[in-house]
Amino acid sequence: MHELSIASGILEIVGDYVPADQRSAVKAVHVRVGALSGVVAESLEFSFAAITAGTPLQHAALVIHRVPVRIRCNGCQHEFETDVPLFLCPKCESGETVMLTGNELQVVEIELEDQPAEAS
Amino acid sequence: MSIVTVERKVLAKNDEIAAQNRTLLARHGAFAVNLVSSPGSGKTSILERTLEFMKGKATVAVIEGDVQTDLDAQRVAKFGVPVVQIVTNGACHLEAKLVQDALERLNLNGVRLLFIENVGNLVCPSAYDLGEAMKVVVVSTTEGDDKPLKYPAMFRVASALIINKIDLLPYLTCDVETLKRNALSINPALKVFLTSCTSGEGIAGWGEWLLQHLSKG
Fold first, then answer.
1. Which residue in A75, A120, A73 sits closest to A100, CA to CA?
2. Residues B76, B106: contact at Cβ < 8 Å?
3. What is residue A102's predicted lDDT score, i.e. its pLDDT?
4. Which residues of A touch B95 (CB under 8 A)?
5. Please, are residues B119 and B41 in contact by the beta-carbon 8 Å criterion?
């Protein structure tokens, strides 16, 4: 249950990229979450909604792009995806494998609604 | 509609502080071990046994992480080693900043080995780098041999696995070979130790292995 601190981390990053007066225009925040990042997508969505409620970001959607665990075998160079927590190469059964993806926990991009230009 | 490209790790700030911790520890020549496990697997007992073993062999300090109370710090302090308690007040894991603050309260002069006992939790601590040299995961035989398959992320990032409470094996259905095989299928590089804190079995092997890392450093 560290999704709340992850959600705060996402908010901080949004704050770094979007000036305070434009935050109500944030339509969506896209994040990449690896299958082995230790983050539960549903809890993260819930936490994000909870901490943005009543703030300028309350209408911003959190869009989670899930990344599967992808492995490369150092023995035979075979690459495969796995949804079971086994990292053995299915071809040559070597355990000498490298995890290519699956650890991700990143903010990818922020979508902003165009705001009508205000008369200065 | 406009798009702002970000491409930033959510835990980038934590990782930055962890890197600072790592630099500080390296400057003092202290080798840091982040001990992780579920609650009740025996992290503190292993720590006590290891402190006994290290007496006269290496100067040790301890950072204790707990959700509430300083009971573990009191247990460790009995061994005459410097100990700093972090109480997370409900948070389920330690973060690099908490460890950085704890390090400020710890005199690292002469310390060769630093244990950071994480909050009992096999999920969240796997995501947080604290600046340690290695994570060591503890599983007790009473938790069952399928534990690594249920919490693969932690076993993937750990360098060593301690299977604790082996003195209870005659009373359990847990099969150590299955447990080992499950762990190694997730991380073949895991160094595995079998220990009992009741009999002391296996502690010397684990302790000697740690000492080898210190001499390398």
1. A73
2. no
3. 93
4. 5
5. no
Question: Taking a C-beta distance cutoff of 8 angstroms, is the pair B85, B66 a contact?
Answer: yes
Pull the structure tokens for residue B72. Answer: 């573990």
Reference B81, options B103, B114, B105; nearest CA is B114
Phi, psi for B87 (deg, rounded to 5): -105, 120
| A113 vs B: CB within 8 A | yes
**Rounded to an integer, what distance in angstroms lies between the CA atom of residue A90 and that of residue A93?**
5
Asked if residues A94 and A88 have their Cβ atoms less than 8 Å apart, the reply is yes
Question: A11-44 pLDDT, tens per residue?
Answer: 999 999 999 999 999 999 999 999 989 899 999 9
Residues A73 and A96: beta-carbon distance below 8 Å: yes
> Strand B31-37's sheet: what is its strand order?
B83-87, B60-66, B113-117, B31-37, B134-140, B160-164, B191-194
ipTM above 0.95, yes or no: no
A-chain residues within 8 Å CB-CB of B3? 109-112
The predicted-structure confidence for B93-106, as pLDDT tens digits, reads as follows: 999 999 999 999 99
pTM, two decimals, is 0.91
Percentage of chain B with pLDDT > 90?
91
For B146-167, what is the mean pLDDT?
Answer: 95
Closest among B179, B184, B185, B186 to B164, alpha carbons compared: B179
Q: With contacts defined as CB-CB under 8 Å, which chain A residues touch B67?
A: none
Does position A45 have pLDDT exceeding 50, yes or no?
yes
